Amino acid sequence: MWALVLLLWTGALLRHGSCQDIASSPEEGLAPDSTGAPVEEEDPFFKVPVNKLAAAVSNFGYDLYRVKSSANPTANVLLSPLSVATALSALSLGAEQRTESIIHRALYYDLISNPDIHGTYKELLDAVTAPQKNLKSASRIVFERKLRIKSSFVAPLEKSYGTRPRILTGNPRMDLQEINNWVQTQMKGKIARSTREIPSEISILLLSVAYFKGQWVTKFDSRKTSLEDFHLDEERTVKVPMMSDPKTILRYGLDSDLSCKIAQLPLTGSMSIIFFLPLKATQNLTMIEESLTSEFIHDIDRELKTVQAVLTIPKLKLSYEGEVTKSLQEMKLQLLFDSPDFSKITGKPIKLTQVEHRVGFEWNEDGAETTSSPGLQPTRLTFLLDYHLNQPFIFVLRDTDTGALLFIGKILDPRGT
């Protein structure tokens, strides 16, 4: 159970609810089924096929984040789970039933009834990578040298995912150069070239890349940016550039069960970032991480209250290049690395050997407007609200239109990964 305390001018508790339940009480949102037993009505937002698919792959993303975070408890985590999900979903086009079902369960496809998963995925990709979103995301399947690939796999792959597979030449230097050139083309040069060598034993390599530079709806005044303390814990601090706004308009709530203050800031292109800030710098982030689901984030998006606050937030420019192979193996996908059936791709036995992830993420003072939109009327508070991201926090970058999780980060030290 979770309790999201929304600060009205009365300072009252607005509601209690379950992070898994859309209804705010056992009676709300329920209707009897044919047997007379109450069943929960689906939120209209999730009845839209592309939104429902976005929720499914986002839940995969939260699972991936939890595994990655638990493996790196003292390090920053930066992921674009959608790009990894896209690579896996594309690979499932070449899988026979048992292997396909394993991938689909990990992506939560087994919980949605959609006869055209891949067609809907194309809609999702088109929606979240529209030019106004400022998101660049791509995935690619790379196969071992001399592999003969069936055209019946290539055609739907290109149709739904806009990508063609690549076959390695066997020359590590040439293969790395070709992959780097592809990444540079897809990301418009926003991600640095890799220096990681390609292992010689590759059978299937999945590449997932993404880059995002946020533009706030309301820009920060760069003259108010200054070096301030970021508390790594109760004893250690570091100086980082902190942006500030003494009269920012944001959406806010206090989750008493998770002991964290939640804030949402709008970005251009119908996107937003939700911040989870623990009440204490030394607080374990695990409880917050365990609560993250598409439904929980959707509930938060509906319930946060518009307020005026004194805001400070670190300038951020982070990148990550590495593997998520072990994380996926821990997510009940081990069969893909052992004995999968990809006979829709080729007649030769092949298996997944490596999953590479390269991402870049940044925000600075840039914004579309110098003042807040007049349409946003903050709730009048009886006290001044402060929201200072000057200690470890979690952020979620979400597409408002579809609900898709695009980026997620655990920032223990904003100076870098």
At a glance:
With 417 residues, the protein is α+β, with helices and mostly antiparallel strands. The chain contains 10 helices and 17 strands. Helix 1 crosses helix 4.
Describe the 3D structure.
This is Pigment epithelium-derived factor. Residues 62-414 form the Serpin domain. Pfam families: Serpin (PF00079). The chain is 27% helix and 32% strand. It has 417 residues and is an alpha+beta fold. The protein has 2 domains: 45-214 and 317-362, Antithrombin, Chain I, domain 2, CATH 3.30.497; 216-316 and 365-411, Alpha-1-antitrypsin, domain 1, CATH 2.30.39. It is globular.
Poorly predicted runs of 5 or more residues: 5-32
Please provide the ordered H/E string of secondary-structure elements: EEEHEHHHEHEHEEEEEHHEEHHEEEE
- Outline type: globular
* First-last Cα distance: 33 Å
- Helix and strand composition category: alpha+beta
Query: For the CA atoms, what is the radius of gyration?
Result: 22 Å
> Approximately how much beta-strand content do the residues carry?
25-35%
> Major sheet, described briefly?
10 strands, mixed
Strand element count = 17
Superfamily (CATH H level) name of the largest domain: Antithrombin, subunit I, domain 2
Total count of domains: 2
> Which CATH class of the largest domain applies here?
Alpha Beta
